[in-house]
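[step 3/7] inverse_fold.run input=structure_tokens len=208
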């Protein structure tokens, strides 16, 4: 349903959860960190965004505020930027057909090599291997004894077939991070499998 959207529009759709996370981080941290978070959000996909640029733009001459950022947020600013970029990348790999090569600059990397290295460092797989492994359809099964429709493998299969918008709506309903493989999501939702199927049915029905 969203194949007509440009890669940039799909990225912006995927970014809404990042905006919400940065807003929550602003609410729980001091005013000292707020300009950092504002700049990160507005320039997240700028390949030149890094700690050096942040310090220059914000007029910071020493590393003290970066240290405070680490203390208050829990990770250094460079890793914060990388994690948010790669979360968008995971959503696009899992729920869209955006090709790997244009995906790199789309999420803030200068080229496929630096993007692939960063992704592998965080997830243990190159982007193409990650997409292939986690979007390959699973076999049907009725092993849980409640019928094929409500089996856990069936839920994995349905999650693998979601488009980006449906995945984000599903994640908001269950307050679950959908920027993960379907097998991980299904394992977390195992106790709520029936409700998960019902929610997917409702979402899909309203969009017919």
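[step 3/7] decode complete -> sequence:
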């Amino acid at each position: 349903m969203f194949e007509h959207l440009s890669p940039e529009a799909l990225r912006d759709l995927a970014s809404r959860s990042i905006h919400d996370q940065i807003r929550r981080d602003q609410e729980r941290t001091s005013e000292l960190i707020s300009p950092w978070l504002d700049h990160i959000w507005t320039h997240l996909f700028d390949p030149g965004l890094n700690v050096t640029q942040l310090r220059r733009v914000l007029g910071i001459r020493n590393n003290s505020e970066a240290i405070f950022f680490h203390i208050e947020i829990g990770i250094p600013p460079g890793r914060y930027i990388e994690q948010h970029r790669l979360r968008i990348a995971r959503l696009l790999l899992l729920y869209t057909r955006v090709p790997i090569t244009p995906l790199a600059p789309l999420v803030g990397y200068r080229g496929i090599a630096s993007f692939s290295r960063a992704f592998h460092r965080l997830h243990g797989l190159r982007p193409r291997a990650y997409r292939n492994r986690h979007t390959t359809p699973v076999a049907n099964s009725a092993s849980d004894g409640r019928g094929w429709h409500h089996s856990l493998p069936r839920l994995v299969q349905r999650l693998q077939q979601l488009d980006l918008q449906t995945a984000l709506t599903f994640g908001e309903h269950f307050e679950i991070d959908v920027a993960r493989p379907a097998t991980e999501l299904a394992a977390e939702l195992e106790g709520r499998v029936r409700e998960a199927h019902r929610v997917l049915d409702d979402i899909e029905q309203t969009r017919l």
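[step 4/7] annotate
Residues 143 and 151 are 7 Å apart (CA to CA).
Confidence is low (pLDDT under 50) at residues 140-149.
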